[in-house]
Specification:
5 strands, 142 residues
Length: 142
């Protein structure tokens, strides 16, 4: 599942944006419902985080329970709120080193969290932060 999110992060980076990707999977954990990457820069829209783009691409569903959100980076509070609001049951996180977001809070509220610490996720965002610190700090609201 994380490979889809990584592919999206690479696309975002190639477009000049923040290299964070996400993918939402059906309860069977093999059917991809939606995927996306951070588009804040490309679309000049601060709400277009990778998780929200993937969620929107998945379309309207009666329930999001038992779905899995794979994301290259620990979700920020905004995206953690989306997970809680819509009852996404499981989050697969590729990197918590570059940013330690709301995944502990999600776990405290019953969301299954799987942290992978994927080297490619860490390297892609780490390099971006090193090269574009002003854009990264804008993205995380610092």
């Amino acid at each position: 599942m994380l490979r889809s999110a990584v592919s999206e992060a690479r696309l975002g980076y190639a477009e000049g944006g923040v290299p964070i990707g996400a993918a939402l999977y059906a309860p069977d954990r093999s059917t991809l419902l939606g995927r996306g990457h951070n588009r804040r820069v490309q679309d000049d829209d601060p709400t277009l985080h990778a998780e929200t783009v993937a969620f929107r691409a998945a379309g309207r569903r009666r329930s999001y329970r038992d779905t899995t959100l794979a994301t290259t980076l620990s979700p920020c509070w905004y995206c953690s709120g989306l997970v809680r609001q819509f009852g996404i049951s499981r989050v697969v996180v590729g990197d918590t080193v570059n940013f330690y977001g709301g995944h502990d809070w999600l776990a405290q509220h019953g969301v299954e969290i799987v942290v992978i610490q994927d080297a490619e996720c860490q390297q892609l965002l780490g390099t971006f932060i090193e090269n574009r610190p002003e854009l990264w700090h804008e993205d995380i609201g610092a």
